[in-house]
Structures are given as structure tokens and as C-alpha cells.
Write a structure and sequence with these properties.
Layout (H helix, E strand, L loop, with lengths): L5 E9 L2 E8 L1 H13 L17 E3 L2 E4 L11 E5 L4 H13 L10 E5 L1 H30 L1 H24 L5 H30 L4 H33 L3 H33 L26 H21 L7 H4 L1 E8 L5 H11 L6 E7 L2 E6 L10 H13 L6 E9 L1 H30 L2 H25 L11 H32 L6 H14 L1 H21 L5 H22 L2 H5 L6
Antiparallel strand pairs: 1-2, 2-5, 3-4, 6-10, 7-9, 7-10, 8-9
Length: 601
């Protein structure tokens, strides 16, 4: 039967069993009445007289063939059987999808062989465990007993995130991992913000109970503002993005809510419990007690030096762009097929490329090493627009024919295909979501901080960061033993930079607002404004550096121990962490001065 006659299909329960209900349009209902009548049992009283089956078919495949028990006069039918939840969901999807007039075909697929998959899981798990232990040790060493409270909150936070992802049936992708890494940073960031404010209160001579109360109170505004801006980013990316962007947004949104609960509420409950039990608390030790004290960097005065450094990097990126003949686009952005092939011995990439060019009808593929000379990454657009259902198998067979001339045994451990249409959707979806999120965050910052210069300065800093990341990709591509393609890794790096920069910039803006409120002024200009911005940057410097270090430690450990399959991806996040810190200190806030020149005294 054809799907265009079905108006609606649903799953339900009847007598403890799953049933599928479907309703047909009025015209089809009349035809359905005749069809079911013709195939109903002739003698319903005879148990051996059963009706005939009517098949549910899509794209030439029979997905179900229920038996007709009687005439159905109104087009409302029900399919019963021993369905489990997955089977029922699949059948409902087939009945609903059958309404599409076009034949379904696979336009994007990823296949990972068991060898590479097992290696990726093992190395990824090992690296993440090591990185997590590094953070726990760092927090305990720097903040003493309070650090263990932060560690407890971090463990609970990670437990919540994983639990929610499992309950949603989410598939963890590379951008999803980026979201989790950013979430770990958020959780640690919230605790560091609170702890640094508590240390400030203790330095003023306040008692431990009052210092903790005031610390949580003063840090809350910064935590709320920084997390709200990120939540706006995550929601917009989830709604308007697709593919890797949605994976990042899903874990980010879950992580933000979880982090606020674990790092703020649970931490406060633990501290109150310890205070009630008269436990002697401490937020530092002999080595960290005077860290970041009496720092007075002139960030505003040196802003033109920072602008020059950024300009040099961007210009170098442009030079390498033309030198390399454009960007190194991955299949995510241009469409094509990518294969990871493992050989028994080291291979020469040019020799393999020459052999494959012959079998690919003189269409030269891209051949690069993937971690070692015995493992190659082969990318080709050969027959990517071929609509034939057997095209993928034919291309793989041709690839094997070309590789068989290498004189070495080989194994295809991973393959990925992205059709041109999907690649275009990913590009426009990612860029559109990023631009729209910048607009919304600009509006939010203007409303919260009552100055358009702050909003515009922050958004321009985001575009600055994107150009710096892009420049780093073009400069270092080909110099490193792993690929720096512009694909999912690049999207993840850009989104991570946006998250870091916005979070840290909002924290500085919040300190400026707090300082103005304490002085009884609504705004200051000229030299007084420059001093205020420098004060805000220096007073939050400990939080900025510590948060950056904790996340950097996580990424560095994963980069070293995480295996070849994600090394390029983690390198992208390392770039993002460095640039995000640099931009928040040296670009986003100092640039406000240049947008407000008309008020300079």
C-alpha cells in the first residue's frame, strides 16, 4: 500500500500490548473499505478461515504484512502483534515517512570498523579519566579543603550529564564531547568564581561563615549572567543548527543546567553542613594564599599591542590561505567520501594517490597520513552525486582495486560519506546559527549592562576569535602530523571559543557594573573608565587563569593520550581555549574603550 493515503500514524497500548493506529484520508478510506473487504475471512466463524495479508512497503522493501481480520469501513485501522518499543517506533516512522512522494536514499553515513571503534573508545576513556583526575588533584591542591567540595560537585555534575544523555538516548559525537569539556569548565568556573570571592571577603577580615555567605552572594550575578548567555547560545544552536552543531548544543544546554545545580546549590549545602558541624574550612594553602595578589597589568593601555598581534596572525592566515590554494575543507563542508585505511607497512602518500587517480578516472583523491605512515586518510568526491543505490559499494570496490597495487595488505577501518546537499545544509546551518546567536547575545548584554558599546565589543571579539582560529588552521595545516580540516572540528572549535570568550567577558562586565554601583555612579569616562576596566580585568584575572588552566589540563591530557582519531579535534579545542582566554583579557573588554571615544575626557 502507498504511504500517501495515511493521514496519521501513532503508537498506543491495548490490553497490555503495543498497537499501531493509522487513519486514512476520506478518499483513501473508501478504497481501503473495498480492499479490506476483499481480503477478509469469508467465514469468520471458522477458525481455519483467515484473512489475507496486506503488505506495508517503502522503497521496494516489505516492512510488515498484517493479516486482515475484517472489513474496515471508516479508514481507521489498527495493527496488533508482538511489537517491542523499537519495532513499533520503526513501523510508525515508516508509515509516516511513506507520505513522501520521493524515494528515500542515504545522503550521509558514517561507518567505523570494530578495530578503530574499540581503539577510540579505549583511548578516549583512558584520556578522559586521566584528565578528570588531573582536575580533581589541581582543585584539591589549590583550594585545600574547599577544593574537595568543588570536586564532589564536579563528580555529581558529570553523573547528572551522563544520566540525562543516556535517558535521552543521545549519541555522543566529537562536538558533543566538546560540549561536555566546556561544561566541565563551567562547573569548575562557577566554583572558582565563588571561592575567589570568598577569599576576597576573608582578606577583608570577615569570619568564615559570613565570608562564605557574601562570596556566594557576590558571585551569583556573574554566574547567572555567564550561564544565561551560554544557554542562549546553546538553545539557538539547537533550534537552528543541525548535525554536529546540535550535538554540541544538546550537551551544552544539559551541562549548563546541571552545572548551576551542582556547583552552586549542592556546594552551598555542603558548606553549610560543614559549618554546622564546626569543621575547620580553608580556601588556600601556604603556596596559593598570596597568588594573584597586587597585580596591576595595564590591559587598556597596551590594547594597541594586542590589536597588532591579532592583525599579524590574521594577515599570516591570509598569506597561507593563498599559498595553500584555499581552505582545507573536509567532507562535512564540501561533500565526498573519506576512508581511513590501515596498512601492514608504512606507505608513501604520493604513490597511493597515483594508484587511486588511475582507477578513479583521473580524479585525484586527497591522501594524507592519519597518525602514522601506515595509516592513511583518503578523501574523494568521485561519483559523490551518483544516485545509484549500489554507487557506495562500487566506489569502495574501485578503491580496494587501486589499493591492491600497493603491495601491502590493508584494512578499511572507517568510512564517511556526506552528500553535497547535506554538506551545504551543515555549512549554512552552522553559520546562520552562529550569526543569530551573536545578535541575541548582543541584545542580552545591552539590556543587562545598559551600554551598546559592551554588547558590540563582545560580538566583535567573537568575530575576531573566529578569524584567529581560521588563521591558525591555515597556518599549521600541513605542518603537524594530523589533519586540520575545516569540518566538524572547526565548528566545535568556533563554538567553544564563543563559549569561553562570552563567559569570561560577561564576568568582567559584571565586575565593572558592581564597582560602579559601589561608587554610586552610573558610568565613568576617560582615564577613570580605563582604570575601572583595568581593575575589573585584574580582579578577575585569578578566576580567568585558573579556569583556563583546568580546562587546558583536560584538553592536553586528552590530546596526549586520546589517540589519533580525535587528536586533530582536541588540537582545535586547545586553540580555542588559548584564544578564548587571550581575547577575553586583551580584546573584548579593552575594545569597549575604542567604541566609546566620543565620551573620552
Amino acid at each position: 500500500m502507498y504511504g500517501d493515503i495515511i493521514a496519521k500514524a501513532d503508537k498506543g497500548m491495548e490490553n497490555g500490548k503495543i498497537v499501531i493506529s493509522m487513519n486514512m484520508n476520506p478518499e483513501a478510506a473508501q478504497k481501503w473499505k473495498k480492499l479490506t473487504a476483499a481480503n477478509s475471512p469469508k467465514n469468520p466463524q471458522d477458525p481455519n478461515d483467515r484473512g489475507r495479508c496486506i503488505a506495508i512497503v517503502m522503497d521496494g522493501l516489505v516492512y510488515s504484512a498484517p493479516t486482515v481480520n475484517g472489513e474496515i469501513p471508516n479508514g481507521s485501522s489498527q495493527i496488533s502483534g508482538n511489537f517491542d518499543q523499537a519495532e513499533a517506533d520503526a513501523l510508525v516512522a515508516i508509515l509516516s515517512a511513506g507520505k513522501l512522494p520521493a524515494t528515500a536514499r542515504i545522503v550521509q553515513s558514517t561507518i567505523v570498523g570494530p578495530t578503530l571503534g574499540a581503539e577510540a573508545i579505549e583511548s578516549g576513556l583512558l584520556s578522559f579519566v586521566i584528565a578528570f583526575i588531573v582536575i580533581l588533584i589541581f582543585m584539591a591542591m589549590y583550594y585545600n579543603k574547599a577544593g574537595w567540595v568543588a570536586n564532589l560537585a564536579l563528580l555529581i555534575n558529570l553523573f547528572f550529564i551522563m544520566g540525562v544523555l543516556v535517558s535521552l538516548g543521545a549519541v555522543l559525537t566529537l562536538p558533543g564531547i566538546a560540549g561536555i569539556v566546556l561544561t566541565i569548565g563551567l562547573s569548575v568556573d562557577a566554583n572558582i568564581l565563588i571561592f575567589e570571592r570568598i577569599r576576597e571577603e576573608l582578606a577583608l577580615g570577615k569570619g568564615m561563615a559570613l565570608a562564605i555567605k557574601e562570596g556566594f552572594k557576590h558571585a551569583m550575578s556573574s554566574i547567572i549572567d555567564s550561564n544565561v548567555t551560554l544557554l542562549i547560545l546553546g538553545l539557538i544552536l539547537y533550534i537552528f543548527g543541525n548535525g554536529p552543531v546540535q550535538g554540541f548544543a544538546t550537551t551544552l544546554c544539559i551541562g549548563i543546567i546541571s552545572s548551576l545545580f551542582a556547583a552552586v546549590l549542592l556546594s552551598r549545602v555542603v558548606f553549610d553542613t560543614l559549618l554546622n558541624k564546626k569543621v575547620n574550612l580553608s580556601f588556600d594553602n601556604g603556596m596559593t594564599r598570596n597568588a594573584f595578589k597586587n597585580i596591576a597589568f595595564d590591559f587598556v593601555g597596551r590594547r594597541k599591542v594586542y590589536y597588532s598581534i591579532s592583525a599579524v596572525i590574521i594577515i599570516l592566515g591570509a598569506v597561507f590561505y593563498f599559498k595553500n590554494g584555499g581552505l582545507n575543507l573536509g567532507v562535512d563542508f564540501k561533500g565526498g567520501r573519506t576512508y581511513i585505511v590501515r596498512f601492514e607497512k608504512d606507505m608513501n602518500t604520493e604513490d597511493v594517490k597515483s594508484s587511486l587517480t588511475k582507477v578513479f578516472e583521473n580524479e585525484a583523491p586527497e591522501v594524507k597520513t592519519a597518525g602514522s605512515a601506515s595509516q592513511l586518510k583518503i578523501t574523494t568526491s568521485y561519483r559523490i552525486s551518483d544516485q545509484n543505490e549500489t554507487a557506495d559499494k562500487q566506489v569502495e570496490d574501485i578503491l580496494k582495486t587501486g589499493l591492491s597495487t600497493s603491495g601491502s595488505k590493508f584494512e578499511i577501518v572507517s568510512e564517511q560519506k556526506v552528500g553535497p546537499a547535506i554538506a551545504t545544509d551543515i555549512v549554512y546551518g552552522a553559520y546562520g546559527a552562529i550569526l543569530f546567536s551573536c545578535l541575541v547575545m548582543f541584545i542580552y548584554i545591552v539590556i543587562r549592562f545598559k551600554k551598546w558599546q559592551y554588547g558590540l565589543g563582545a560580538v566583535i571579539a567573537l568575530f575576531h576569535d573566529a578569524l584567529i582560529v581560521l588563521s591558525c588552521y591555515t597556518i599549521f595545516d600541513g605542518m603537524l602530523p594530523f589533519s586540520l580540516e575545516i569540518g566538524q572540528d572547526f565548528i566545535a572549535a568556533i563554538l567553544t571559543v564563543m563559549g569561553y570568550t562570552m563567559t569570561e567577558t560577561v564576568v568582567v562586565f559584571d565586575r565593572i557594573r558592581e564597582r560602579l554601583a559601589d561608587s554610586g555612579k552610573t558610568d565613568v569616562f576617560g582615564e577613570e573608565r580605563n582604570k575601572l576596566i583595568n581593575f575589573a580585568l585584574n580582579s578577575t584575572l585569578s578566576r580567568t587563569i585558573l579556569t583556563s588552566l583546568t580546562v587546558f589540563f583536560v584538553l592536553l591530557v586528552i590530546f596526549i593520550f586520546g589517540g589519533d582519531s580525535i587528536r586533530g579535534f582536541i588540537f582545535a579545542l586547545l586553540i580555542g581555549r588559548i584564544i578564548g582566554t587571550y581575547s577575553s583579557l586583551c580584546i573584548s573588554t579593552p575594545i569597549v574603550v575604542d567604541f566609546d571615544r566620543k565620551k573620552v575626557a
